[in-house]
Amino acid sequence: MNRTPLPLWVALASTAMGCAFGVPSYRPVVPHRGAAPGIEAEIVEVTHQNGLTVDLKVEGSAGIRLQRGLLVPAAASPCREGVRDSGLFLDGPGSSPFGAVTQPQWLRPVPITGSHRITLKFPEGASSSLLYQTPVVDLVILAERPELREQGTAEEASEERCVRVALSGKAPELQWSRPAPWTGITSLRFTYPSHAVGSVDNGWSLEFGLGRWFGPVRAKLEAGFGIGDCRGYCPPGPKGSGAGFLWFPLRASIDGYLVETTGFGIAAEIGVHQFSATRTKPDETARWETSRGPRAALRFDFLALPAPGWPRDARQGAFGLELSLGRWSSATAADEPALVWGFGFVNHTGF
User: Comparing 133-137, 178-182, 223-227, which segment has the lowest mean pLDDT?
Assistant: First the structure.
């Protein structure tokens, strides 16, 4: 079979996801709190996905109502500037794909007497750029003044207050974390044995996997499918079909970073791999060839580069070029073992 090139767009589509900053939720390293007379607020969780979602825990006294949320640079005047929330959810997950669906609160101000969970959504674009300007979240509050209740409407008998809560920045107390013990893996790999084993030769594969961090080391399991050349015993199948092999790689490995800096890392990996390859024989039955052996790889990764205060280590996501060296020993043929080298594009996404 002639080697089949894979279009570049497939490589990009299968590997580009991990470099994007922010799919999951983040927790503050230390509490991010703010207060004004009659109300206390604390940011407990932030999600970066289709904009910015901020979850707050608030404690309000009687007559406290929330008018709106603002995302602003810390240098801005309190509750006067910035990006207004595009959605406010009361006591619900808001943006979460799990749990009950909560409708946004469009009738403002919203009473928040007592303990509540407030979710504010801010639009993509403006919110992303503000993350680089030491952002804060301002809550515009209306507080009832009983002494003025008889002199006019509820709005006229209220005064405006502002609660400012720091969101993120370079300072240690503004940092956010995400343990991200699990990793989703997508890879496009090209494999070249020193000689055919069981008539299976060069090929490519698209693979998917799952990994989990244990301290500085990650255990991974990957599987996929691809196409391999046939060299040697390669009789055509029915109607000339079956010129090459359809193969199914399976890999188990551990990896860790030898070097990890801002935006770049070098990872080493060791493990085992197995290739189960099949093609159609002239009698229309399936022919299977299986090879397995050890494998080592070195990977040069680009790491996510989020705004100051947000985690930028390899657990969050990486996209890199992998160079590998392994060995094939056939489980189905008497061929000599072969050295196998390869390269690939590998994407890791923490969740």
Answer: 178-182
Tokens of 150: 């008889």
Q: Whole-angstrom Cα distance, residue 330 to residue 108?
A: 70
CATH number at residue 272: 2.40.160.20
**In this predicted structure, what is the pLDDT of residue 147?**
56
Span 232-254, mean pLDDT? 87
SS3 (DSSP) at 146: helix
pTM score > 0.90 for this model? no
Closest CA to 36 of 4, 78, 70, 82: 78
Query: Parallel, antiparallel, or unpaired: how do β-strands 83-84 and 114-122 relate?
Result: unpaired
> How far is Cα 176 from Cα 225, in angstroms, rounded to an integer?
38
Buried b (16+ CB within 10 A) or exposed e, 260-298: beeeebebebebebbbbbbbbeeeeeebebbbbbebebb
Q: What is the number of structural domains in the chain?
A: 2
